[in-house]
Write a structure and sequence with these properties.
Number of helices: 2
Strand order of the largest sheet: 1-6-5-9-8-7-11
Number of domains: 1
Number of strands: 11
Distance between the termini: 21 Å
Largest sheet: 7 strands, mixed, barrel
Radius of gyration: 14 Å
Order of helices and strands: EEEEEHEEEHEEE
Strand content: 35-45%
CATH class: Mainly Beta
Shape: globular
CATH topology: M1 Pyruvate Kinase, Domain 3
CATH architecture: Beta Barrel
Structural class: mainly beta
Oligomer: single chain
CATH superfamily: PK beta-barrel domain-like
Amino acid sequence: MGNVLSIHVSAERGIIKTDVAEVKVLEGWGLEGDAHGGDWDRQVSVFPIEAMARVPEEKRAEVSADGYTENFTISGLLLEDFPAGCVLKLGEAEIEILYIGKEVFKEKGRPYIVSREGRFGRVLRGGSVRIGDFVEVIFLPET
């Protein structure tokens, strides 16, 4: 079981997200007030802080100093424990993870690692999520 370390939203795409202590997650939409919400398959982004270990040494300072681009930063889950197809419960919300990474990798700042190891998906069940809430895998696809 893991925890929510931080939560981030932005009203516009392509800008650094603002930290919030709590957010309402809307079923079939995404985070209230976040520009990535909508009727599509990347409504929510989840970044496991454990992925920072995969950042090359020469990029670590740059990645660590850049602002947040993901909605949720979590800790406590091994990367291999929540593949595409799993369902995560964050606080009251349930998120189906559909993708790991993006089609095109980013080379600068925090997007460097989020574009490679971020989890992206859609909201199956809405509800409140707060910093410190538990994160757990509630469904794993058959392999």
